[in-house]
Amino acid sequence: MNLSISQLKRQAKLSLNGKWGLCVLLTFILFLLNFFLPSIIEMILKGGPAEWFNQEETPISADIASIIISIVLIPFTIGVNWFYLAVVRGSNPEIPYAFSIYKDGKTSLKLIGVSIIQGIFVFLWSLLLFIPGIIKSIAYSQTFFILRDHPEYSMLEAITESRRRMNGYKWKYFLLGLSFIGWAILCLFTLGIGFLWLVPYVSTALAAFYNEIIDIQDKNMEY
């Protein structure tokens, strides 16, 4: 079965039909938490808006707080990806769906651990050359979707399964991401506002990609 980029993008648009407003809101929340929240914390630790604008150096406490916030938000970011996978699969998730991941502390810690391990692996491969790092990041790209379907997998099992599933599909994944560059450039001319619509489009297409390769590979295993 041929995995067509145009079909994946078409499926993404169909899945988002009637859900654009909700997805734009989710993207806005994601933006606020990842970009504005660290700035607000830094402002508080610096002593207020006046000090924040005047101080050239960032206090160590602000740097530590920013790192902690980034780590704490990892499960939410993954939850957003799971949200779009649910959209592709025909469900009607609401905004709390992306936050529901925090209900299970063990799962949240596991996802944070996987994210850190994955980042270390990609970094080590990047030390060899830039290209191997990109290839490995693509190979590991399905890890969190796999953990959504197989929460029983260990962290290394999920990463290994992603690498196995992406055999023969890495170039297609790369081209899928590349196909959105034109839209990204146009969004820059909207002062970034266009990304509120582009991010859901890209995220849904990537979720559709995972859904399709899993379906194709599982069907091939039946024969």
Keywords, please?
mainly alpha; 78% helix; 223 residues
How are the SSEs placed, and which strands pair?
Blueprint (H helix, E strand, L loop, with lengths): L4 H12 L3 H27 L2 H6 L5 H13 L1 H15 L7 H4 L5 H24 L1 H10 L3 H7 L5 H11 L4 H9 L2 H8 L6 H28 L1
Helix pairs in contact: 1-13, 2-4, 2-13, 5-13, 7-8, 7-10, 9-10
Q: Mean pLDDT, as a whole number? A: 89
N/C terminus separation: 14 Å
DSSP strand content: under 5%
Secondary structure: number of strands: 0
Q: Structural class from helices and strands?
A: mainly alpha
Total discrete domains: 1
Individual helix count: 13
Order of helices and strands: HHHHHHHHHHHHH
Catalogue the unreliable spans: none
Give the biggest beta sheet. Answer: none
Approximate shape: globular
- Cα radius of gyration in angstroms: 19 Å
What is the percent of helical residues?
Answer: over 70%
Describe the structure.
This protein has 223 residues and is mostly helical. It has one domain. It has 13 helices and no strands. Helix 7 packs antiparallel against helix 8. The model has no long low-confidence stretch (mean pLDDT 89).
Give a quick rundown of the structure.
The protein has 223 residues and is mostly helical. 78% of the residues lie in helices and 0% in strands. The chain has one domain (5-222).
